[in-house]
Amino acid sequence: xxxxxxxxxxxxxxxxxxxxxxxxxxxxxxxxxxxxxxxxxxxxxxxxxxxxxxxxxxxxxxxxxxxxxxxxxxxxxxxxxxxxxxxxxxxx
Length: 92
Ligand SMILES: [Zn+2]
What we know:
Elements: E1 2-4, E2 10-11, E3 28-30, E4 35-37, E5 43-44, H1 50-60, H2 71-78, E6 82-83, E7 87-89
Antiparallel strand pairs: 1-2, 1-7, 3-4, 5-6
The protein binds zinc ion.
């Protein structure tokens, strides 16, 4: 199990059918506004939208040489929307 250090939630990185689970912290109740709001340091493991990710890859990834897999694919798969306070591995 993985514990999110932002919201304290625990989850398995894969669901029962083997699919990868992407955790995103749930919103919290904000009494003054009487609405649910996103946390300031929300963790969101979903992949960024291509319009956000592709310019970052263009600026940081080495150029594709044509040999083997495109190194940008690994970065694309590892990228998440926001890391929040991080995670730790917990038992159970
Ligand atoms: Zn969380």
